[in-house]
Amino acid sequence: MGDVNNEGTISVADVMALVNIVLGENTANYNMKAADMNKDESISIADAMAIVNIILGQTE
């Protein structure tokens, strides 16, 4: 969960990729399942915040 851009790590680049998804950018290269962090079957800014929290060490 969280490796939206499929680079093998969770980083700010994944947050940027998720924001691109929310803004309607091309999602062909993104892992949509990994983007749905809260598993509500919708990708939103809440999912981006969950990735930010992982990066900041506030959650697993």
Q: Concise description?
A:
The chain has 60 residues and is mainly alpha-helical. The protein has helices at residues 12-22, 32-35, 45-55.
Describe it for me?
This protein has 60 residues and is an all-alpha fold. It is 43% helix and 0% strand. The model has no long low-confidence stretch (mean pLDDT 94).
H and E string: HHH
Secondary structure tally: strands = 0
N→C terminal distance: 10 Å
- Radius of gyration, taken over Cα atoms and rounded to an integer in Å: 10 Å
| Low-confidence runs of at least 5 consecutive residues | none
Largest sheet: none
Helix content: 40-55%
Shape type:
globular
How would you state the average pLDDT, rounded?
Answer: 94
Structural class of the helices, strands and pairings?
Answer: mainly alpha
* Proportion of strand residues: under 5%
Tally of helical segments = 3
Q: What does the secondary structure layout of this molecule look like, with pairings?
A:
Elements: H1 12-22, H2 32-35, H3 45-55
Helix pairs in contact: 1-3
List key phrases describing it:
60 residues; mainly alpha; 43% helix; globular
